[in-house]
Amino acid sequence: MLTLLKNARLHAPEPLGLCHLLICDTRIAVIVQAGEPLPASGAAVKTHDLCGRRVIPGLVDPLVHFIGGGGEGGFGTRTAELTLDEARASGVTTLVGALGTDALTRTPANLLGKARELAAGGLTTFCYTGSYQLPPVTLTGSVGSDILYIPEFIGVGEVAISDHRGSQPSAFELARLASEARTAGMLAGKSGIVFIHTGDAPGHLEPLREAARQSAIPLTQFHPTHINRTAELFADGLRFAREGGRIDFTTSTTPELLAAGEVAAHEAVARALEARIPPGAITLSSDANASLPQFDAAGRFVGLKAGRLASLFEVVGACIEHHAVPMEVAIGIASTHTAEALKLNCKGRLAVGNDADLLVLDDDNWRIDEVWALGHCLHRREDHKAG
Questions:
Q1: Which end of the chain has the smaller Cβ count within 10 Å, N or C?
Q2: Could you tell me the domains of the chain?
């Protein structure tokens, strides 16, 4: 199947001007400047004129709780699963699912089944094996075999450090886990990333530094998230990035978390760039459908709200509109650099040979007109008419 998207103001994420994109089945086959001829083809081509609207890569979200999360306040506080309609409308076309605090009533098998449900709906989905605690829960009996034999499993996570809900892993345990995931990833052609939930305990990211010091594992094998959760953790995260690591900011938030000292994700991006952290060392994740719990000073559960997948796209817009972050930088942080960190080579960039995952944006506002994933339009804004 050939689909021609004409007159797209392309951000790949760097601006390429007015272009035509020819999509063959699920991938981008040709990109030419508007006015240049397309290669001849004997096949029928379905054409859409985008009339000069902005087109950006589909976003890549490295932390989504497909099957919900929560439960810190009992069974009545479990958060809901992600719905296909919500996912399709969000602007996120590649999602990585994880377990969290609850690896007892939620399992890797549940996670994999949900990943395949979302994939059947047109999205690209991956998973982490394991959860907050060590030893990790797995589907096949080990982290290594999950990554090696199950296509969707690309790493392990989200493993909790500096958090009272984690298993308080030692540096040695973290290094052993990272070694197993890294080796399996090399054998399978995957990242073998260790995605880390970072709590607000005083140790912050020190367990990861210690694991790297005690082993041959590089800091980049760990990908810590929630780095904007407190001012102190944010400062330590900038130091971690200067030392060669990557950091991830959480886009979902609540007024309570912000009042307690969380740095809003769009502000965190702007401040990190001002501190001369390379954009390639920064990623964003939504933490969608996870619980965003609130605890009092004694560690007692107070309440929670759920993360939102759409927050990723919203934060990219806020970076551009409120902090004058260049559009290609903000988009790259939520697509290109995440794909690079996870070794998803066909994702995060609009280029010939890559998957045809793209967002068509409104002419005047930071909102989505159309979501295309793997060459198919999955969502169109109700008050928007196709070209």
A1: N
A2: 2-56+350-380 (2.30.40.10), 59-341 (3.20.20.140)
